[in-house]
Amino acid sequence: MTGINIxxxxxxxxxxxxxxxxxxxxxxxxxxxxxxxGMGKRIRVxxxxxxxxxxxxxTMGGLLIILVVxxxxxxxxxxxxxxxxxxxxxxxxxxxxTFAPLATLALVGFLGTADDWLNARTGDGIRARHKLFWxxxxxxxxxxxVWDTYAIRNIAVPFLGLVAIDWWLYIPFAAFAIVATSNAxxxxxxxDGLAGGLLVxxxxxxxxxxxxxxxxxxxxxxxxxxxxxGALLGFLWFNSHPAQVFMGDSGxxxxxxxxxxxxxxxxxxxxxxxxxxxxxxxxxQDIAQIVWIRWKGRRLFRMAPxxxxxxxxxxxxxxxxxxxxxxxxxxxxxxxxxxxxTRATLTTPLQ
Length: 351
What we know:
Elements: E1 4-5, H1 8-36, H2 61-82, E2 85-86, H3 96-122, H4 128-150, E3 154-157, E4 161-164, H5 167-188, H6 194-212, H7 219-239, H8 248-266, H9 272-275, H10 277-296, H11 306-312, H12 317-341
Parallel strand pairs: 1-2
Antiparallel strand pairs: 3-4
């Protein structure tokens, strides 16, 4: 029996819509279950006083995002293997291009879930150095898997083309990108809807790049991005101000790491700081605040991360979120424009 032939463009739409509706349907049950388990967010006492009212809001919403994305990926794998549906690309959905992001999302996401659980139960999560250790271990394993799968010998640099890179340099560089992006998203996750919205724009940027890549053809990676985007939009339905549920470390750490892996597999990891500009700005400002306090003994900004600085400057939470979203959308457009404008020299090294 011949399967239904579906275009990749149609699957991008179907995948995102399916993930959105499944997430929206499941989240009320998830929120109720998390609340009954006593999984309420503990608010930092050194944060803005306006956040104290958020104490006890159900957290760990990223876990449901991970489960929805993984579940829909499994459905597509079964449809493809059974011959019910066919589309361009490899003979299965979970291929070399989608395995690493899915594995990263699960491994780092469940680390974040454990942290959320401990935070809700005891008020203290996993110690930062222990969390960082496991992030590094996962990042090194995934970086090696990407390097080995694609036999990477070059890295694409905007306006320069392909630059040769040895394995001993690529693997730590890729691992750093994964850990840094994971923690950058976590730092940004401090206002209702902020990190979720910025992740949507970032994944849209890399979805477009994956869909346009030709060496290798990456339709499945683009479809996975679409599923993540749909699940994030479903989450934002309940995370918009005032939030009914928080993403937690389960979502921020896992999705941030998965974003970096997607960037690596598309061959455009050097565009990650452009497409994820707000994550970079939040992290740099946070580091600058710490360094300045230790050096000068006083604050450089009103508060870190950056969104809290604007809160103390008198900006309403919704205004900060929307304005950061605008910058995130523009940076994603600029990143895709860089890719399109220099496409002749930016052909992916994953050949």
